[in-house]
Amino acid sequence: MKYQPVVGLEIHLQVKVKTKMFSRVSSEYFGEPPNTHIDPVSFGLPGALPVPNKEAIKKAVRLAIALNCQINKRIHFDRKNYFYPDLPKGYQISQFDEPIGRDGYVEIEIGDDSRRIRITRLHVEEDTGKSMHSGDESLIDYNKSGVALIEMVTEPDFESVEEVLAFAKRLRQIVRYTDTSDAEMQKGQMRFELNISVKKSGTKELPNYKVEVKNIGSISVLEKVMNFELNRQSELLGKGEEIKNQTRGLKDMTGATLFQRSKESSDDYRYFPEPDIPPIHFSEEYIQEIKKDMPELPNERIKRYLDLGLELEQADNFVEDKARGDYFDLVLESAKDESMAKEFSKWINTDLTGILIKNNKDYSDVQIDPFDLVYLIQMAKDKKITATIAKSVIEEIIKMNKSEKGIAEEIIKTKGLVQIQDESEIDKFIDEVIAENSKVIEDIAKNPNAIKFLVGQVMRKSKGRVNPQVAEEKLSQKLNT
């Protein structure tokens, strides 16, 4: 019997702010010595009062708007009570019945189709500490305890692994575009909790159980966990066994999971209003101000690029790598000619990206002025320089590690790299190559591709200043091939 997954996600996101959610301690703890970013508020010591981080709340509202959520104009904080060593207070300040946003959605593309994944709620809370286990010993680092966290919960709308991956990638893009978080998963800034069950294919009735897998720290591991759980649960149901609500943890990076405990319900947490923080009210003016300041979002950006004539893969590259997309936009702005968008895209996505990777750089510090890139591409298009020369000039500028408008033209003029247009000068190189390569010329009758060698020799003699297409045409005419 075939089974299909029914999946919902919980996403935890560390907010990009300087201080923790309820205190003035620095939230930039990554790589710092353990237990050096702590204070009385994190530990809930007597007399230590929490004060909400205004910027974290503003960023949460902005993300909720980007996710098409309705904004609750009155919110309050709650205490979520449970005991665990990495929670020093014995409770977590979170939100329960009045979150910041609710009833939103994210649009994802699957093949040629698109669909909406519903967002149930979005709220802010404080992060917990970090437990580290080695043999029989357990250690706790409280540096991230109290760091501002956004939690998002989806409806169980996913019906395939492909949909979950598309959602995870699109959500990460939105988070980065709105500057909510850097969402660097290797630093724990974006984590997933998977709620997965399976049902018989073709049935509409939802399963009567739910398996939760916590602390998934990468999209590739998320995929592996889904495949593991789909196979594990399908096998159990196929044998007629019952699956109960449970929480499971990762065994390793292969995606295998292990039973941890029976799953809690919200009643187990004994939520009650946080007595030290009064309710917060958002005015309509406050919400409108945030909406006015919203950046272009990934869906809007990809549509704009497709309208310029870019292929979907090209557009995806610019949307996924925001810095690359920003540079592409600067090139378009510098050129003032959108008809060449596809040509610019090809150069940036292939040649420039390759040169940057070769020189251990990326688009956050690309060292070539957009004006110069446009100049070089236009020169190559007009056959005034070869594409090879254009690439070599790009690499030279990047190695110089400085970006000065007009430097590309200066290099070409100083080195005399403009393509030779004088027919007699080209003929001179052709004649020299023919005279020096009689053996190759004999081979052309048997192997027509041997003419490519002669073209290369013309390019070498001319230092790349003869158009290779012109060289091949002239060689063919002189050799009657």
Automatic annotation (TrEMBL):
According to the entry, every stretch annotated as the Asn/Gln amidotransferase domain falls at 326-479
InterPro entries named in the record: Asn/Gln-tRNA_amidoTrfase_suB/E, Asn/Gln-tRNA_Trfase_suB/E_cat, Asn/Gln_amidotransferase, Asn/Gln_tRNA_amidoTrase-B-like, GatB, GatB_Yqey_C_2, Gln_synth/guanido_kin_cat_dom
- SUPFAM superfamilies assigned: GatB/YqeY motif, Glutamine synthetase/guanido kinase
Which Pfam family, an example, fits this chain? GatB_Yqey
Q: Main EC class of this protein?
A: ligase
According to UniProt, the reaction catalysed is: L-aspartyl-tRNA(Asn) + L-glutamine + ATP + H2O = L-asparaginyl-tRNA(Asn) + L-glutamate + ADP + phosphate + 2 H(+); L-glutamyl-tRNA(Gln) + L-glutamine + ATP + H2O = L-glutaminyl-tRNA(Gln) + L-glutamate + ADP + phosphate + H(+)
Q: Which GO annotations describe the biological process of this protein?
A: glutaminyl-tRNAGln biosynthesis via transamidation; translation
Query: Which Enzyme Commission number(s) are listed?
Result: 6.3.5.-
> Which SMART domains does this chain map to?
GatB_Yqey
Q: Could you give a GO molecular-function term held by this entry? A: glutaminyl-tRNA synthase (glutamine-hydrolyzing) activity
Record keywords, A-Z:
ATP-binding, Ligase, Nucleotide-binding, Protein biosynthesis
Question: Family, per the entry?
Answer: Belongs to the GatB/GatE family. GatB subfamily.
- Functional note: Allows the formation of correctly charged Asn-tRNA(Asn) or Gln-tRNA(Gln) through the transamidation of misacylated Asp-tRNA(Asn) or Glu-tRNA(Gln) in organisms which lack either or both of asparaginyl-tRNA or glutaminyl-tRNA synthetases. The reaction takes place in the presence of glutamine and ATP through an activated phospho-Asp-tRNA(Asn) or phospho-Glu-tRNA(Gln).
Q: Which PANTHER family match?
A: GLUTAMYL-TRNA GLN AMIDOTRANSFERASE SUBUNIT B MITOCHONDRIAL AND PROKARYOTIC PET112-RELATED, GLUTAMYL-TRNA(GLN) AMIDOTRANSFERASE SUBUNIT B, MITOCHONDRIAL
Assembly, per entry: Heterotrimer of A, B and C subunits.
Protein name per the record: Aspartyl/glutamyl-tRNA(Asn/Gln) amidotransferase subunit B
Species name for this entry?
A: Candidatus Dojkabacteria bacterium
